[in-house]
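name: query_chain
kind: protein
chains: 1
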Amino acid sequence: MAKLGFLKASSRWIRKPAPGKGPQLHARWLTSRRDILRAQRLRCRTFSEEFGIRISPFGLDRDRFDRHCLHLGVEDRSTGALIGYTRLLPGETARRLGGFYSRNEFDIQNLAALPGQVVEVGRTCVHPDYRSGVTIAVLWGALAQYLFTARVDYLIGCASISMADGGDGVARIMPGLRERYLTDDSLRVTPRLPVPRVASCEASAPCEERGSMPPLLKAYMRMGAKVAGEPCWDPDFNCADVFILLEVSKMSRRYRDHFMAKAG
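structure:
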């Protein structure tokens, strides 16, 4: 599918800060209809560019879960632009809907008996001009604050690896994830549509030489998350989705303190 025309220059998406002023980032909950539309527009533009697809002729990425989720955004106060985003679906709400969004891609029956409160995170994205790491730190700081305040026990969700390269990146990244981050067998999920096989990298190669993890996936792993099995192929988004599982009580103290400091 062809890319959308407005993706040829990401700087066209948003207004630049005034000369001499750097970004002034802050996170907040998005509750108004206008804010949700801004988030859906950011999602559409980011995913279209990242995965090389045309998501919607209307310029919005939206689904039936949006109206039931909590929406968290990061804005640049110097411009008023929304430049980072994620959404959260609490387990109680998911049960009323018939299950989490990730259930569409994975058989997650093994996770049904997880004790305590489970929350699903998804649709996370950052504007290309703001991917220095600061935006995700501010976003994750607000997320961590929510996890502790709401007494969430487990965070689940998907992190995507683009397959615009034909799947070579997936083949290079997955060996390292299997070696270092796999959950116990009892907590594995099963992809409903496995990623097509491509030539894997040499097993003897060091993990860091096999392939660079996408920033979001790397951030999850640094937080202390685990990978709950093999990835699922999402042909609509031209990507491989990796299922992540984070036991909040075991979140890396270093990154918990770092993210919480960013959240103030």
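note: Helices lie at 33-51, 91-97, 134-149, 168-181, 207-210, 215-223, 253-262.
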